[in-house]
From TrEMBL:
<dbReference type="Pfam" id="PF21983">
    <property type="entry name" value="NikA-like"/>
</dbReference>
<dbReference type="InterPro" id="IPR053842">
    <property type="entry name" value="NikA-like"/>
</dbReference>
<protein>
    <recommendedName>
        <fullName>Mobilization protein</fullName>
    </recommendedName>
</protein>
Length: 102
């Protein structure tokens, strides 16, 4: 149960910036400040469109990984250029997915 108060002064612009950041995460200003001060994870809530993009990106990552595995199999004629390009795409997609997961 929270019964204690902490207050601190900020400029008008800082107050607006904190309020905007809190709104983007779906938290109250005080909850956002509490989590930030205690080094707790503060995650953004995604819009329905952003969630759809994340799901599609995840599906693309899986599909490219499957294609890469197929090309690496002994039953397929190996083309090093295709393997290199696929690895680049897989790496880029993985990097973007990790940004979402943070």
């Amino acid at each position: 149960m929270r019964t204690q108060y902490i207050s601190f002064r900020v400029s008008y612009i800082e107050k607006k910036a904190v309020a905007m950041a809190a709104r983007e995460t779906g938290l109250s200003t005080s909850e956002f400040a509490r989590r930030a001060a205690l080094n707790q994870k503060v995650t953004l809530r995604f819009s329905p469109q952003e969630l759809e993009v994340y799901k599609n990106l995840h599906a693309y990552h899986r599909n490219f990984k499957l294609i890469s595995n197929l090309i690496k199999s002994p039953h397929y004629y190996k083309n090093e250029m295709i393997l290199h390009e696929l690895q680049e795409v897989i790496t880029l997609i993985r990097q973007h997915l990790q940004k979402f997961e943070q």
